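Review form for a predicted model. The reviewer records the input and the model, then writes brief findings.
Reviewer: anonymous (R2)
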Amino acid sequence: MRQGNGTPISEFLLLGFSEEPELQPLIFGLFLSMYLITVLGNLLIILAISSDSHLHTPMYFFLSNLSLVDICFTSTTIPKMLVNIQTQSRVITYAGCITQIYFFLLFAVLDDFLLTVMAYDRFVAICRPLHYIVIMNPRLCGLLVLVSWIMSALNSLLQNVMVLKLSFCTDIEITHFYCEMKQVVQLACSDTFLNNMVMYFVTALLGGGPLVGIIYSYSKIVSSIRAIPSAQGKYKAFSTCASHLSVVSLFYGSSLGVYLSSAASHSSHSSAAASVMYAVATPMLNPFIYSLRNKDIKRALKRFYGMAGTKGQSS
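Model under review:
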C-alpha cells in the first residue's frame, strides 16, 4: 500500500505497553508465561477429550474446537510481541500487519460463533432432552462448525480487502501490542468512512447477533430448569451449563470492557492494557474454568495423566 506522498509503505511500529527498557523483561516474562499456560491448558483439554471415548459428544466436540481456536487466537499476536521485545525491535511489516489483522478477526469471531453454538447445544440438551441425540447428530455438529469457519473467514476477508485499499501517511505508529484494525484504519490518509461503517455494522451484526442467540437460549434454559420439580434435578441441569455460562460472561465482559475503556479513555495505552483481558487472559482462563467446574473433564484429565505415566514407565 502507498503512503500519502506516493512512496510504498513497508512497515508499521508496534509501540506496545511501555517504552521503558527496564520494564521489557517483566512484560516479556509475563506474556510468555500467559502464552505457555494458554497453549498447554487448551492442548490438554483437546487431548483429554480426544483420548476419552466418553467425551465424544457434541458438547465436548464444540469445546475441543473452542480450545483449538483459543490456541490459534493467542498465537496470532503474542509470539510476534515476544520476538519484538527479545530483538528490541517494534517493527512489523505491512504484509505481517495485514495477515495479523486477518487471523485476529478470524479467530475472535470464531470464538463468538462457537460460544453461540455451545449455547444452542445446552438449550437442546435441557429443553429437548428426548430428542437431543437426533437433533445434535454428528452431521449437524460438523455443519455448525463449518459454517462458523466460513462466516468468520468471509468477514476477515471483507475487512482485510477494505484495509488494503487504504493509503497511509508518515505516521505509522500503532500504540498497541498487535495490529489492531481500528488503529490501523485511523492511521490512513485516505477516506475511511466506508471502513468505519462496515467495521461498526459487522461488529453489531456478528457480535450482537450471537449474543442475542445466547441470551435467548439461556432464557429458555432457565424456564426449563425452573419447571424441574426436584432441587437435585435443577442443580444437575444447571451444572451442565455453569462452565459455558462462566466462559460466555468472561468473553463478553472482557469485550465490553475493551470497548468502554477505548470509548472513555483517550489513551491508546489504556486500551491496549484493557484488551489483554480479551485477547490473552480469556483464552488462558477457559481451560481452567472447564477443568475445575466439570467432573467429566477432571476424570478425563486424570485418565490421560495416568496413561501418559504408564507409557513413560514402560518406555
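Findings: DSSP finds eleven helices and three strands in the chain.
Further findings: Residues 166 and 231 are 59 Å apart (CA to CA).
Recommendation: see findings above.
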